[in-house]
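anyone seen this seq b4? input:
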Amino acid sequence: MRELLAHAARLGVSVHVAHLPEPYNGFYDHENQRVIYDFKLAPIERDCVLAHELAHVYLGHHDRGDETAEAAADAYAAALLIDPERYAQLETIGLNPEEVAEELGVTVKLLRAFVENHLTRVRGAAYTQSRMGAGQFRHAARWAT
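predicted toks r here
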């Protein structure tokens, strides 16, 4: 949480907690440069919602309900919250997605966003943070079959 609040400060937005009406868990108020999340959220949900809303700030999203913007915010939030090295370690021991998400302290939805947007699978191995040249990838793990 501390890292997320520091990230919010670097982005120039304040973070507030409030009781929000259903179905809202959080939102980015561009006009007032603040992110608001719901008081009822569990710690993992809170972190994921806050990271998602900070993604909207970082990515410059102003409109609500744009599915492309929502997917981009999930991808950014996943990259912000998930340590690729820890993910690689967890994948090698054959945990199911729910268990991996719990171990990483994220929702299954954000774990899926991480897998879809930040992994490359090649011949039985999962790679993150691709780069060109020798070594090709920073983190790699063989998954259980």
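The domain at 2-81 is CATH 1.10.10.2910 (Arc Repressor Mutant, subunit A). The chain has two domains: 2-81, 84-142. kinda curious what u guys think
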